[in-house]
Amino acid sequence: MPRPATDPAKSAQIKLLRQQAGRWLKSAREKAGLTQAELAEQVGLRYYTFVSQVESGLGRLPIETQAAWAMALGLDPSEFAKTLLRYYEPELYRLLFEADNAQGRATA
User: Fold this and answer.
1) Sign of the dihedral through C-alpha 50, 53, 56, 59
2) Which residues 6+ apart lie within 8 Å of 59 measured at CB?
3) Whole-angstrom distance, CA of residue 105 vs CA of residue 33
4) Rounded CA gap, 3 and 65, in Å?
């Protein structure tokens, strides 16, 4: 089945969220005192350019690498993944986490 045409507004929102995720990752890397090359080495990448692409919003971290990135940056892997989910999959994040908060308020 063919995929539907991409909505330009949605594409722009995805691009913006990836750029925000990249800025967050760059800030975390800088707080950890690592260069892009040092981070790449710690997470098992051959080249630092992938780190650069992710930080600029041109790429995203695969799920299977997120724990390694979190550990290299000195962050809790669960919170790291949750933060990236907010940027990469905002609707899923909302369903998983914000719905719980809203339901908790409704039953309180």
Assistant:
1) negative
2) 18, 50, 53
3) 40
4) 28
Q: What angle do CA 98, 104, 107 make, to 5 degrees?
A: 145
CB 74 within 8 A of CB 34: no
- The C-alpha atoms of residue 108 and residue 52 are separated, in whole angstroms, by 45
Q: Are 48 and 37 in contact (CB under 8 A)?
A: yes
Residue with tokens 């919003």: 57
User: Interior CA angle at 53 toward 62 and 63, to 5°?
Assistant: 10
> Which DSSP symbol is given to 48?
T
Distance CA 94, CA 78 (A): 16
Q: Can you point out the beta strands (E) in 1-108?
A: none
pLDDT averages per 10-residue partition of the chain, 108 residues? 73 94 98 98 96 96 97 98 96 87 55
Which tokens in the block code for residue 108?
A: 């309180």
